[in-house]
Amino acid sequence: xxxxxxxxxxxxxHNGTERLVEPERAFEVLNKRARKPEFVFSADLSLMFNDHRxxxxxxxxxxxxxxRVSEALEEEDKLARKEDxxxxxxxxxGMTETAxxxxxxxxxxxxxxxxxxxxxxxxxxxxxRELIP
Length: 133
Known about the structure:
Layout: E1 8-14, E2 17-20, H1 26-30, E3 38-41, H2 45-48, H3 52-74, H4 82-93, H5 97-106, H6 125-131
Antiparallel strand pairs: 1-2, 1-3
Helix pairs in contact: 3-5, 4-5
């Protein structure tokens, strides 16, 4: 199934050139004993190419997540701590702390720039991890 959906990409040597195999032939090519199979999970492709646009996409996705969290908590009149949001974004999006701080800086969240509130105004980091998938 993963081969047909091209979630696993397989390559083969053809006339001295490496090329991608059609999804319907992928399983057959991987089972050839003549050569060592080479494959990659398509979900990992963005990790293989260290491109500044990917970093920008990570920051954007983290910013959007932070804004959705803020909106969800508005109904309960609760807040998420800045440091907790950064910690969760680093883990959730596989980004650096610097990138997560940049995302928070760009995010439109309710508690940005306000004075520290009492502890009961904030949710726990465990709840924050579960809040928005």
